[in-house]
Specification:
about 475 residues, mainly alpha, two-stranded antiparallel sheet
């Protein structure tokens, strides 16, 4: 284990966080609210960065093991320090602050704050900005701007942090791949901000809502969510961009290269859009009699389906009051998620495609023992190791979900509240059902439950295995091997 290189990269992460904290510091100066809380936190991060990076390691190689540990510890450390402004400003205690900022960085959007409009603007900005930081991943950002030694072995960092079962390079160099991803991400975010401004949304609101949409996070800056604007234009724009940010960014790269058919060739994208269409249609039909018109039912169902499947978590209405059938479909969407390689969370469409095809092949083999069929995705054969990882991921995902339900159930809340809250945190969705619905929050849970759900958010965002590996003591005792 190359511990010195691990310390160095964690130090760089803290250095980047120190710089990023200056943005809410400026917002605090403008609004004259809680500015010094961010400056103090920035100085703490900068000091830790100096201590961890002052001595460059002689061995700068990063293997898979180091990659997993670096990603897991970086997200933990970033959350531990990112929570400090909430505490310094007196808005939250440390457990609540840790829950809030972890929810921000993991792009979950579950909040313990009941009256967000009474919170200082700098804190509100930091919550939303944390979505944008965590959406693409801070280590991807570091790879895009800082040349790390190790050449292609830096791919281990990218694979550990990027969501989805298969991660590859878009271009030969890792730095170029990371830079390209962040360029696409930034351009799409700026485009969304401009469109919201054109519609008349105030600049501060446009920035925060765009950060939440781009990172598919969904922290609301209004007590009643996006529905408080009561603006069809905002909802249409946000719905479209939530869906766009839930698509694999590799598709956008192919589009830039002139491959217009890339969207239609991707089986995952077709499946993703198909699920969205079917669920919107079913919920719209179910809500037709609930709202005054078919158009209003379509408006509300489209926004909520896009928000939940992409794990953004914005709400334009209180869907907790919808008929049970519609609420059940939204609950199912929490376990589906968006595309691999997007900023969205959840189990991912590609994993379901792989699992269903493997199940089909297994049944076929039971009926015809001599038959040999391979699982394919986008015309390419999926390696058996990937198939094994997909099924292992799904199994561990369910185990973590059940364990968290057991822990949270000690708080004594109803079954709908507990199961949906845990599903929402593990899937990085945000709102649940019952008391944890879109018009509620997570403040009523105990400190133990909040810590359990905080861990669930990290498991969901890092896709389980990096965090598990980081908690295995034997990982740190053995020397690095090339795996």
């Amino acid at each position: 284990m190359n511990k010195k290189m691990i310390y160095r990269i964690i130090g760089l992460v803290l250095g980047v966080e120190a710089i990023l904290l200056l943005f809410p510091f400026v917002v605090g100066l403008i609004y004259q609210e809680a500015a010094m809380c961010f400056l103090l936190t920035s100085l703490i991060c900068a000091g830790l960065c100096f201590l961890l990076t002052r001595r460059p390691p002689e061995n700068k190689t990063i293997y898979a093991k180091e990659g997993f540990v670096i990603v897991a510890l970086s997200w933990i450390v970033m959350s531990l320090t990112g929570a400090l402004p909430f505490v310094f400003s007196g808005v939250l205690n440390y457990v609540d602050a840790l829950f809030e900022i972890t929810s921000g960085f993991t792009t979950t959007g579950a909040s313990v704050i009941s009256a967000i409009e009474s919170v200082p603007k700098s804190i509100t900005f930091w919550r939303s900005f944390s979505h944008w930081i965590g959406g693409m991943g801070v280590l991807v950002f570091i790879l895009s701007v800082i040349p790390l030694e190790g050449n292609n072995r830096n791919m281990h960092l990218m694979r550990a942090e990027s969501p989805g079962p298969i991660v590859g390079k878009l271009v030969p160099k890792i730095k170029s791949t990371a830079s390209l991803l962040y360029t696409i991400y930034t351009v799409m975010t700026i485009t969304l901000i401009v469109l919201l401004l054109i519609g008349g949304m105030p600049l501060f609101d446009a920035l925060c809502n765009a950060f939440g949409t781009a990172g598919t996070g969904g922290f609301s800056i209004l007590n009643q969510g996006i529905g408080q604007y009561n603006n069809l234009y905002y909802e249409v724009v946000l719905t479209i961009f939530m869906i766009l940010f839930g698509i694999n960014f590799n598709v956008y790269f192919l589009l830039l290269m002139g491959d217009i058919r890339a969207v239609f060739k991707s089986e995952e994208v077709r499946g993703y859009l198909g699920v969205i269409f079917v669920f919107i249609a079913l919920i719209t039909l179910n809500l037709w009699g609930y709202y005054d018109s078919f158009i209003e039912a379509l408006r509300q169902s489209s926004f909520q389906v896009a928000s939940i499947i992409t794990t953004t978590g914005y709400s334009s209405c209180d869907f907790n009051l919808w008929p049970q059938f519609s609420k059940t479909l939204l609950f199912v969407l929490m376990f589906i998620g968006s595309c691999a390689g997007s900023t969205g969370g959840g189990i991912k469409i590609s994993r379901y495609i792989i699992m269903l095809r493997q199940i089909k092949n297994t049944i076929s083999h039971m009926l015809h023992p001599r038959s040999v069929k391979l699982v394919q995705l986008d015309g390419k054969t999926v390696d058996n190791s990937v198939i094994t990882e997909v099924f292992a991921f799904f199994a561990v995902y369910i185990i973590i979900y059940l364990l968290c339900i057991i822990i949270v159930s000690f708080d004594g809340f109803d079954f709908e509240t507990v199961t949906s809250a845990v599903a929402s945190c593990l899937g990085n969705v945000g709102p649940g059902l019952g008391l944890a619905g879109p018009m509620g929050n997570y403040g009523m849970f105990s400190a133990t439950s909040k810590l359990a759900m905080t861990l669930a958010m990290l498991f969901g965002r890092l896709e389980i295995f990096p965090l598990f590996i980081a908690f295995i003591p034997s990982v740190y005792r053995h020397k690095s091997s090339n795996f």
